[in-house]
Every structure is written in C-alpha cells, then in structure tokens.
Amino acid sequence: MRAFVLSGYGGPECAGLTEVPQPTPRANELLVRVHAAGLNPVDYKTRAGDLKIIHRYPLPIVMGNELSGVVEAAGDAVTRFAKGDRVFARVDKKAMGAFADYAVVQEDLAAPIPASLDFASAAAVPLAGLTALQALRDELRLSAGDRIFIPGGAGGVGTFAIQLAKHLGGYVATTASSRGEALVKRLGADVAIDYTRERFEDKLSGYDCAFDLIGGDTLARLWPVLKRGGRVVSIAGMPEPVTARKDLEAGSGLAALFWAASLTTRWRAARHGVSYRYLFMHPSGAELAYLGSLIEAKKLEIVIDRVFPFAEAREAMAYLETGHAKGKVVLAMA
Prior knowledge:
Number of domains: 2
C-alpha cells in the first residue's frame, strides 16, 4: 500500500511516499481503508525532530495523526464497529499511521462519521476539534459569560475553538488578517482584531482566559489582556511540569526538564496573577462522537482551506508550514 513515511529527522526530504506492507489489526483494533487524512502542525514538527524529547519514533514510520475512512476488518475483541462502517479518529499518538491507504485504529479512539459529512470534512475534525474541546471545556473550564481571547482564530484549531467557545457561552475575541476577518466573524467571534494593523494588547483587557494557538511573541504580549486570576492554556508555548505528568504520563525527569524550560513563561504569568498550562491533547472516541453530535445539530462548522491528492502529500505539508491556511488542510487518498 502507499504510505507517507518518515525516514529521518529534518527537512521535507526526510519524508515521502513509498510502498509498505498493509498493517494487521490486533484484537481491539480496526483496520480502516483511509479515504482522507488531516494535516496538522504536529506533523511537520515531528518530521523536523522538534518533538523527539517527548517521543522518539522508531524509523522508518508512517506519519499522520487523524483520518477518516471505512472499516475493512475488525479485531476479535471489537464490539462497536463492523466492516463497512464509516469512522473517523485521532490515532494513537505513539504510533501515528494515518497517511496511508490503510491504517489500524484502536476501537476506543474511533467514532462514527456524522451522516452529513464527506470523508474530507470528517478527516479535518479529530485532532483540532478535540484539542479545542479539551482546552476550553476541561482545562480553561469556560462557562457562560466568560470572556476569552483566542489569538489565531482562522487556523485549524482556531476555527473550532471560536465555535466551541460560543457554544459554551463565552464572549470571544480573536486575531486574524483582513483575509480571515470575515471567516472568524461568521464563526461567531464577537471581536476580531487585524493583527497586521493593530496590537491586540492595546484593544483588550480584563479577559477571564486565553487559549494561545501561536506562542512566541503573541504569548509574551498576552498576559496584560487578562485580569488577575485569569487562565491561559497554550498549544504553542513551552510545555510545563503538568504537561509531562498529566498529558504525557512521563516521569520526574521530563517534568523537571519542562519545569526549567517553562520557567520564564510561568514567571511572567505569575507576575500578572495568571495561571499557565501547556496542553497536549489526548485521543478519545467518546469525545469525538460528542463533536459529531454538534456537527449533526449544525452547531459546529468544519472549515477546510485546501484538499490535496495523496500524491502531493509533500506539497500539502509545505503549504501548511507557510502558516497561511484558513481552516484545515486535508489529504484525499482516493
């Protein structure tokens, strides 16, 4: 079968399409014929070796973290799915494997695709949708009336985060270019700041929480936007000790490393009376099914920027790396 395989850590030349054997599902797994797969920043960060400290994959390995497709076969212990079922999933992050004609998925990580979705749209949901849901609902504990700042609202996670924040009752401010302003407002943003012309810290203050999708200078300038007692969850800043213990189930060594690496960020947060948390999302079929119910109820729109044929996987990755995508970038296997 065709697969997009990581053979070494580094630039675009380190991953490419090749032929590999079809995987065999274990007792609790599904063999899925992949129809589409979503791309995410974690993909090119993995290829570049930026995440080796967290998980060093045995190479070569099939890349890809989310997919949609049809169950081709099911392991003996599988009870919820059968051959022919349409499913989508965020695959096991220790295994990857979504960028291929066939992939194995643990039963508890998969969910039925909503009837209204095609495969490309379904493949765009799992990683970004679950990240937004877990950050807003579980970590920030967003509730009705809370004011939340979500910089970078026109990107893959951002388009889900704006809508889920509104669903939870939040008042949402975000940043976008002039090209993305209409999009974020359509998705429900109450305030949209054009970051090419204005600095958000000059426009916003007294917010309850923030979901940082950009990191770097944006995170460094974010603290004054929040009131004392405010909360920040980031997926683009520096991991901290809770990241190691809770998200990665790692030992004290990695927690200590993250403690040192995040010291400046946590110090800045403490100076402003704000809590800081870096989140690595976790796969969940049950939570993905919940997102599916919101999609079916037309409470969650999926925004796709471009769909690339599988043969152009390397070009799709390069396009995502430009940082200009509005919504998700997807590979179509058929």
